[in-house]
Amino acid sequence: MKNLTFVSLVVVLGTLISCSSTPVVPSADSIKISRDLPKDPDCKNLGRVQGKTISVKPDLEGAIEDMKKEAAYKGANYLVMETASGYETAVSGTAYYCP
């Protein structure tokens, strides 16, 4: 009976441990944003990204955060901000992965 309890406990703990994982998508907080191209020639261009907010008042920071989230989904860690709308509700740029 003790062996059965021990085996059950090991199986349950093993299952719980195997279910823990690291997030597939990197955090948008770790993305460096700049207006300058990356200096490292090994940086890989991951494509254009956009960010926007649906707000009555201008929210440039919210639009930038939205753009950073899109860049994070692409695996970026560096973001070049290129344009911002005149109403400060939309931004666009290029995402890069720099090793």
Q: Any chance you could write out the topology, listing elements then pairs?
A:
Layout: H1 2-19, E1 32-34, E2 44-52, H2 60-73, E3 78-84, E4 90-97
Q: Structural class, please? A: alpha+beta
Number of strands: 4
How would you describe the shape?
flat
Task: Using the coordinates shown, work out and report the CATH topology.
Answer: Translation Initiation Factor IF3
Which CATH first-tier class would you pick? Alpha Beta
Main beta-sheet strand count, sense and barrel state:
4 strands, mixed
Percent of residues in helical segments?
Answer: 25-40%
How many structurally independent domains? 1
Note the quaternary state here. single chain
Q: State Rg.
A: 21 Å
Termini separation comes to: 54 Å
Which H/E pattern describes the elements? HEEHEE
Strand order of the largest sheet: 1-3-4-2
The total count of helices amounts to 2
Architecture overview:
With 99 residues, this protein is an alpha+beta fold. It has a single domain (25-97), classed as 2-Layer Sandwich (Translation Initiation Factor IF3). The chain has two helices and four strands. It has a four-stranded mixed β-sheet with strand order 1-3-4-2. β3 (78-84) and β4 (90-97) form a beta hairpin.
Which keywords apply here?
99 residues; alpha+beta; four-stranded mixed sheet; 4 strands; 27% strand
Give the structure's gist in a few sentences:
By secondary structure, the chain is of the alpha+beta class.
